[in-house]
Design brief:
The complex is a heterodimer of chains A (about 375) and B (about 130).
Chain A (H helix, E strand, L loop, with lengths): L6 H7 L4 H14 L7 H10 L4 E6 L5 H7 L6 H8 L1 E5 L7 H14 L4 E6 L2 E2 L8 E2 L2 E2 H10 L1 E7 H6 L12 E2 L1 H4 L5 E4 L6 H14 L12 H4 L10 H6 L9 H4 L18 H4 L38 H12 L3 H20 L5 H5 L2
Parallel strand pairs in A: 1-2, 1-3, 3-7, 7-9
Antiparallel strand pairs in A: 4-8, 5-6
Helix pairs in contact in A: 2-3, 3-10, 4-10, 15-16
Chain B lengths: L17 H19 L3 E4 L7 H11 L5 E5 L3 E6 L5 E7 L5 E8 L10 H15 L2
Antiparallel strand pairs in B: 1-5, 2-3, 3-4, 4-5
Classes of the chains: A alpha/beta (about 375), B alpha+beta (about 130).
Chain lengths: ~375, ~130
């Protein structure tokens, strides 16, 4: 196996100028929500690090996460993102197949034991001994437990690997679970979303390489730089919410005016992700910008959280008063609702009472 | 029913205040730049601007005397705004998507400077060509 050289050497060999690299790092800083001036510091560090071995295991999944990453709008992704790492196993992307493919995984696990990054997409079925998903005759469960042993850290890519996702939805016939349900002794980063924003996947990898450590994580194991705020907090339609202007149907006056989609079931207030700022398809737009509410795909059990078109449920008394007070002071609503998300979420899910729009609007 | 029957109105979003807030931020950074020479940047992609607000910002800042273009892993457009020392820097990838959109407060945007590594590399190539 080829020795893992530094990124600087790789770029130099390919005739990529330092200025190009600085531009790439400026894009990285934007992705990682770091101060924009930090590009030169990132460049200095990234250039010197050894490219880590990455093993990517795809389990009970639809390949949407890989699709998301390989269609990333990152600068010349194929030549730069994949130059930052040494992707030693990815059964969809690699040229090798069959025994040769499995051999390269085993070689990488042996040679870089304790140092490689393990990326996982897809959930892991554990019912009936894990027989519902196998690769090369081995269960996903078996393969994950083996590969996790030598990993420096594990990145759970997508809502399936992070939280169980669609396979885990009721009635969960295969007993699908998340990576964090099975592995307890390794650092795990959850990059949730169905699929996750490609820039977030690459941003987390870049962060790990730049700082040699995992980024700060929230209480669900997600990097705060991308999941620290709700869609609602950063939504360009937020002013309409604060003004109490809501679309009531998808073709009414309010919808045409671009008013808030809360009443049409938007899950923005309880969904933590970077869609509203990072956006999709090369920064073109995000669902709300196209007139559809957020479906909350980066949150656990989003598939079982009721209709995508029903307004968010909420407990009545105290939350309604919080929301009312917040609506009255406008900008404070973001803070109030963030607090609401975390502190009250379990209660909300248990009680399943609907917060009416009148409650939110106040008087 | 034809498309013309669907009324689409452009709603005035200027009253939201995001553009004014950013212009104030830029003014504060310019004051600091004048006082201490400290350059700084604002990441526009991190701000939840609507398309209309974005255009309002472009109009407010205008275009100044200098513009430059990088041709590296896609293009980059840089121009000084109507306010000297305030630069609008937009990086594109090879597909033409915006990958970074920045307001840079500086005498010259940092990325325009020749990088020491590239200068050394260039000298090497020149010497090689001259057979030295």
């Amino acid at each position: 196996m080829k020795e893992h050289e530094t990124l600087e050497q790789r770029l130099h060999e390919q005739g990529i100028s330092r200025r190009s690299f600085l531009k790439f790092c400026a894009a990285m800083a934007t992705m990682m929500a770091l101060p924009p001036g930090s590009a030169s510091a990132i460049a200095a560090t990234l250039a010197k690090v050894n490219r880590p071995s990455v093993i990517w295991l795809s389990f009970q999944e639809c390949t949407g996460c890989t699709e998301s990453l390989t269609r990333s709008h990152s600068p010349a992704l194929e030549s730069l993102i994949f130059d930052m790492i040494s992707l030693d196993y990815h059964h969809t992307l690699q040229a090798a197949s069959g025994f040769a493919a499995e051999q390269s995984r085993e070689d990488a696990m042996k040679e870089f034991h304790g140092k490689y990054l393990l990326l996982v997409d897809g959930s892991i079925p554990i019912k009936d001994g894990g027989v519902y998903s196998t690769i090369a005759g081995r269960t996903n469960l078996d393969m994950l437990l083996e590969a996790a042993k030598g990993a420096a850290a594990i990145v759970a890519v997508g809502s399936c690997a992070a939280f169980g996702g669609l396979p885990n939805a009721q009635p969960n016939p295969t007993g699908a679970v998340a990576v964090s349900d099975l592995i307890k002794d390794k650092p795990i980063i959850n990059i949730s979303g169905c699929p996750p924003i490609p820039a977030v996947i690459t941003g987390v990898l870049a962060h790990y390489l730049t700082f040699g450590a995992l980024p700060a994580l929230d209480d669900r194991g997600r990097p705060k730089a991308f999941y620290g705020e709700t869609i609602h907090d950063r939504c360009y339609r937020r002013p309409f919410y604060d003004q109490g202007k809501f679309a009531k149907t998808f073709d009414d006056e309010g919808a045409r005016n671009g008013w808030c989609l809360y009443e049409l079931g938007c899950k923005g207030p309880t969904t933590h992700n970077a869609c509203a700022t990072t956006k999709w398809n090369g920064g073109t737009s995000f669902p709300i910008e196209s007139g559809h509410g957020c479906i909350g795909c980066s949150e656990p059990k989003f598939w079982d959280a009721g209709s995508f078109y029903a307004p968010l449920p909420a407990p009545t008394a105290d939350v309604a008063s919080v929301a009312k007070a917040a609506a009255a002071i406008g900008a404070g609503a973001a803070v109030a609702f963030s607090a609401l998300d975390r502190a009250k979420k379990n209660k909300v899910q248990q009680s399943r009472e609907k917060l009416t729009v009148d409650d939110l609007k106040g008087e | 029913m034809s498309l013309d029957d669907i009324s689409i109105k452009v709603t005035d979003l200027h009253s939201i205040g995001s553009v004014d807030a950013l212009l104030n931020e830029i003014a504060t950074r310019l004051e600091r730049f004048i006082a201490t020479g400290e350059p700084s940047m604002v990441d526009l992609k991190s701000l939840p601007f609507s398309p209309a607000e974005y255009e309002a910002l472009r109009t407010a800042l205008g275009r100044g005397e200098v513009s430059a273009r990088l041709e590296t892993i896609g293009d980059s457009e840089l121009y000084e705004t109507h306010y000297a020392g305030v630069w609008w820097v937009t990086h594109y990838n090879v597909e033409g998507d915006v990958i970074a959109d920045l307001i840079e407060i500086a005498a010259v945007p940092a990325i325009l400077h020749s990088q020491p590594e590239d200068v050394r590399d260039g000298l090497e190539r020149l010497q090689h060509m001259l057979g030295r």
